């Protein structure tokens, strides 16, 4: 900096502080006693200012700060564990505040900016959101091991006639709820009764104590349970569709890293099998993949 602007800035600082910082003569400039007393604090302020800028850069790059994220309540435990481990491994400086929320609650949180990123189910209203790839997860049928349909390798939906259906409450994801029932009816299955349940223990009790079935991905069913059987549905007519979502224009590096981690974990923990399309299906509002 040239001498005149520097002198002007020092004089302006002296006026603001009300303290003379330098003694000036035609030959030299020396620091005053007051300037000496303020020097250490001035250096500390400069250091803190640089630290603030460095922290801001880390937050912008997704390497520090707080990320408020959400996952659906019935996501498989292995998948949740994989997401947490992978995210913390890749983003050590980010504090992850993880919530267990339904799609409806996530959409409300994203709209109010109480959430930074979530994992939602489609179909739903995605106005104002940006989405990651939509992942299709095949649903099979979960039923008592001695049910007649359990003897089939793949169960047609028509074979479930006469069974009650255990399904999550409609308020949690109305469009998904209605889409499942519509698809069932289109393929010849109309439940005698829809029972609302979500917790694994409650659902298990309903499956074992009444003529009822539930739909679930293969990886969500505990294979060691001898009383229940999971079977694929013939033709794979039912799927869950997930994608990471964040408010439009607010996808910082940490939110995008979480979205990538969720996508990778869902794909990695999905059980292979069945005649699934080998290539992605490109659908609006983002690419859609079978997992």
Automatic annotation (TrEMBL):
<keyword id="KW-0238">DNA-binding</keyword>
<dbReference type="Pfam" id="PF03466">
    <property type="entry name" value="LysR_substrate"/>
</dbReference>
<dbReference type="GO" id="GO:0032993">
    <property type="term" value="C:protein-DNA complex"/>
</dbReference>
<dbReference type="GO" id="GO:0003700">
    <property type="term" value="F:DNA-binding transcription factor activity"/>
</dbReference>
<dbReference type="InterPro" id="IPR036390">
    <property type="entry name" value="WH_DNA-bd_sf"/>
</dbReference>
<protein>
    <submittedName>
        <fullName>LysR family transcriptional regulator</fullName>
    </submittedName>
</protein>
<dbReference type="InterPro" id="IPR005119">
    <property type="entry name" value="LysR_subst-bd"/>
</dbReference>
<keyword id="KW-0804">Transcription</keyword>
<feature type="domain" description="HTH lysR-type">
    <location>
        <begin position="1"/>
        <end position="32"/>
    </location>
</feature>
<dbReference type="InterPro" id="IPR036388">
    <property type="entry name" value="WH-like_DNA-bd_sf"/>
</dbReference>
<dbReference type="InterPro" id="IPR000847">
    <property type="entry name" value="LysR_HTH_N"/>
</dbReference>
<dbReference type="Pfam" id="PF00126">
    <property type="entry name" value="HTH_1"/>
</dbReference>
<keyword id="KW-0805">Transcription regulation</keyword>
<dbReference type="GO" id="GO:0003677">
    <property type="term" value="F:DNA binding"/>
</dbReference>
<comment type="similarity">
    <text>Belongs to the LysR transcriptional regulatory family.</text>
</comment>
